[in-house]
From TrEMBL:
This is SWIM-type domain-containing protein. Residues 76-96 are annotated as: Disordered. Residues 1-30 form the SWIM-type domain. GO terms for molecular function: zinc ion binding. SMART domains: ZnF_PMZ (SM00575). Signal peptide: none annotated. Residues 81-90 have a biased composition (Basic residues). It comes from Brassica campestris (Field mustard). Keywords: Metal-binding, Zinc, Zinc-finger. It holds the Pfam family SWIM. InterPro entries: Znf_PMZ, Znf_SWIM. The keyword Zinc applies. The lineage of its organism: Eukaryota, Viridiplantae, Streptophyta, Embryophyta, Tracheophyta.
Amino acid sequence: MLAERKCSCKYFDEIKIPCGHAMIAADGVGVPYNTLCGHWYKTTSWRETYEGDINPDGDPRNVEIPEEVSSMILYPPNTKRQSRRRRKTHIPSTGEIQVPKKKLVLNKCGRCR
């Protein structure tokens, strides 16, 4: 049901992004996919959302804090030190691993080289 933007799988109904069923049906009828998406996914809606200035309400120092909250003493959370020994070597991440260069292997005799 492309006109109502509904599908029996309910994915298209709830998220307003065409599911695979709706895309196949749209291909059969010749309807472009971008007309099936919800209006809030389109670039114009995003630009209108952030078009104006975003300003804070006021100075955070002027906010009234209740007496019970301001009189509370907060300590850091209780944590346990790990029971194992700390690692002394650095474990490189994926980008830091250097790939070894391939060595040129020549076919040589094991006896006389």
